[in-house]
Amino acid sequence: MFNSFQTKLTVFFTALFLLLQGAAFFTVRESIVQNIFDQSRDQLVAANRVFASRIQATVNALGRLSLLYYDNQSFDCAFDGFQYAWDTYFTSAGYENELPGGIELISQFMIDNTSMGTRPLLGSKVDNDYWSVFAPLSKRFSKHRFSFRYDHFEVADDDLTPDDLNQENGDAWTAAYVLRSFRKQRLTLEVLHADSKRPEREFLNLPVRAKETTIQASYRFFL
User: Fold this and answer.
1) Residue 163 belongs to what domain range?
2) Is residue 176 part of a domain?
């Protein structure tokens, strides 16, 4: 579903990287990581390599942009007698900046596909596209920090397995307060509200839509 779109994203990121390379007011860092899986996992990954490419660019007074592409290059038809390999790749873009008033902004967008159990003419047992975005704001006052975060996610179920409904979408809002009264101690209060829809809940005689609120407090000390 997202293959063509992801191709466009990759082309766009490549063009952006080449542009940034020639700009004196950018600080750019690129890293490529390739790793051969150990022999004990060869049956699942078919001795393929993980490929990851990351680009970071800092623009004067405009914040920092991070771009990441990851592909585990696995064969999702590989089967070791117990489980299939998962073929997963994603593209991610992040942005960080300090807004007026000392408010910190950190945001990220990710688009992905993951699949397993692909069989000729039958398709995949699981084939999911998903994307997510989050944007938190945070402000520090001396020993106090207040934060607010918004999340949105969507999962598209593209396979034909009737009893495995993976599609889901939802939103979440988080408010948090952190107090560092002493250097090695931290008190955190957090409220999280999530509103999501998942058709598979009907199999458990539950409503498709769920609204959940979690309130938690924690106290940590560090040695």
Assistant:
1) 3-171
2) no
The answer to whether residues 159 and 192 touch, using CB atoms and an 8 Å cutoff, is: no
Per-10-residue mean pLDDT, the chain, length 223? 52 52 40 38 47 68 82 84 86 90 93 88 87 95 95 91 87 96 90 96 93 96 84
Q: For residue 92, what are the CA distances in angstroms to 5, 74, 134, 162? A: 13, 19, 12, 30
Strand extents, DSSP E, 60-163: 63-71, 86-99, 103-116, 126-141, 144-157
pLDDT tens for residues 2-27?
Answer: 455 555 555 555 555 544 444 433 44
Please state the domain count of the chain.
1
- Does the residue 104 lie in any domain? yes
Question: φ and ψ at 191, to 5 degrees?
Answer: -125, 125
